[in-house]
Amino acid sequence: MKAGYIKTTLAAAALTLAAIGTANAAGCIKGAVVGGVAGHYAGHHAVVGAVGGCIVGHHLAKKHAQEQAAQRQQMRAE
Predict the structure, then answer these.
(1) Cα four-point dihedral sign 67, 69, 70, 71
(2) Which domain of life is it from (predicted)?
(3) Which of 9, 44, 57, 70 is 20 to 30 Å from 32 by CA-CA measure?
């Protein structure tokens, strides 16, 4: 039981340290929360879900920002 808490704490610390080095983490927090909850209910894999959610959330936020930039540029061209 204690080993599970230690692994979870180490994984959370690693995720935190990885996020500190990343200045542009748009979408990561929301994705990590959703992924963590989903992972928890899908077999107690909250940390794996949080990491996956962070990756997907960041990707979707980046894609959304690119679409908005393209739309703004198109508006300026008209």
Answers:
(1) positive
(2) Bacteria
(3) 70
